[in-house]
Amino acid sequence: MREKQILVVGLGLIGGSLAMALQGFEDYTVVGAVRSQSTYEKAAAKGAAQRITFDPAAELPESDVVILCQDPQGICDFLRDNRARFRPGSLVLDVCGVKGAIMECASCLPPEVDFIGCHPMAGKEVSGIEHAEATLFRNTHCLVVPGPHSTQAHLALVERMAAHCRFGDVVRTTSQEHDALIAYTSQLMHVIALAVCDSPLLEGCVGFEGGSFRDCTRVAALDVGLWTQLFTLNAPALTQVVEELEERLRAYRLAMQRGDRAALEGMLASAAGRKRMLNLERARGDDVRSQFSGEMI
Amino acid sequence: MREKQILVVGLGLIGGSLAMALQGFEDYTVVGAVRSQSTYEKAAAKGAAQRITFDPAAELPESDVVILCQDPQGICDFLRDNRARFRPGSLVLDVCGVKGAIMECASCLPPEVDFIGCHPMAGKEVSGIEHAEATLFRNTHCLVVPGPHSTQAHLALVERMAAHCRFGDVVRTTSQEHDALIAYTSQLMHVIALAVCDSPLLEGCVGFEGGSFRDCTRVAALDVGLWTQLFTLNAPALTQVVEELEERLRAYRLAMQRGDRAALEGMLASAAGRKRMLNLERARGDDVRSQFSGEMI
Hints:
2 copies of one chain form a homodimer. Chain A is α/β, with parallel strands linked by helices. Helix content of chain A is 47%, strand content 14%. Chain A folds into 2 domains: 4-173, NAD(P)-binding Rossmann-like Domain (Rossmann fold), CATH 3.40.50; 178-296, 6-phosphogluconate dehydrogenase C-terminal like domain (6-phosphogluconate dehydrogenase C-terminal fold, Orthogonal Bundle), CATH 1.10.3660.10.
């Protein structure tokens, strides 16, 4: 009987951690694909995959599952360049933080290849195989966006792989809903952190920042190439939430400039109340996940 | 010989912690003033002061040092209502997070009373005497703004009290410089957190916020009355930094809307580089405090 194979393309933090977490999954062999000698050596040293190759394209005809873990542009290029090489009936996944643009790229695949967009909501402030670990996904969400030809069998396979990796749950959503959620909860926070650090006041405050400043700006020291891609690919959803934030900041500023203490107090009471409600709902735990209209699979 | 006395007016988190930290300071007795029976009982139970009173005005003629720890409006009202009762030659301090408006209020004091504005850069997310502790100020900055009649002897007394409370240092500054710093490093972070929580997208994201969202919005569940006062009193400096942030957010949005990836990448590289530099400077520690032009005393 032919051996089943999972190919993980790109052994960075996420790909490396997935390759490690997936080892021992049913009767699949985990093969990792790298580009640099340096990554090869680090991945081999920590046993990140059962076999490591420099040539992912050559593995495609024999791979039942392919997980694309490059940066967004790398994923799109790989799909386009190799669309005829994927094994018919195989499942292709990605791990990118934007979904609409990736699903659009994946539409180049032939109908007998099943693409399911994934977003493991896990990460670290550091990147690279040296920080990869099999436990990275424990108790995190795995968001999935089925493609037009996705089968129940493949969705069930994703579910079993996620359980093996110890994800907290698998939540099915649409690319539109995913991208709006990520624009607000993640990308906007990065734009804010960057914009705060642009201020000429930054240099003068070293050593005098409070906890709120450190927390808000923590993510500003980001990977420039990756985040330029993420912002660009999700520009429609992201520009909308940035513009809404500009308008709300303006409303606070105008209330202060008018000296309208009553209006300002009302705005603070409303927003602080919303945050307290969020804290309470989060404390209630699992049952609130249903608030996000994505369905659990 | 007459016994020397420090009067702490208002035993909340900061006042209560100061009263506790100051016990045993030289030959001073620490008296705490409260308004409610409930605070009285909690303060007495934890020995927050050597004596507790409901009538701070009656203590003023016998107090060598008075530390005003009410909210900003409470401090201003107290100064105005009791300006003739302070002991000639006494030192009056406050602990408020805005300084210009407080120094203006303190100008009602007679010239023989020395007012020095203070801002202990310490706090917790929770308030009240029940959270007060003598160790709250360890290794934090105490910013001080001398008044027009402040004496070297009183500045030296502040320095000794701060050392007794285990502040990391005492840094002298002006009310203008202080208020611009605080508008940027603290108040702006609170306005951002509020404005993010105003979004109608908030409800839909419960359970799917990443670390950056939690960090950025952490401070939104604020004390509405207190922060309305702080924003109002520091409106000139705060509205300026809010408007600058609106403009920077707009610049990011326009680069994304134009699809100008090169411009966007340049903006990300610049801001991320500034944040990395800040992290490095902070890691260098004490010697960077000189970047803030306030002088150490």
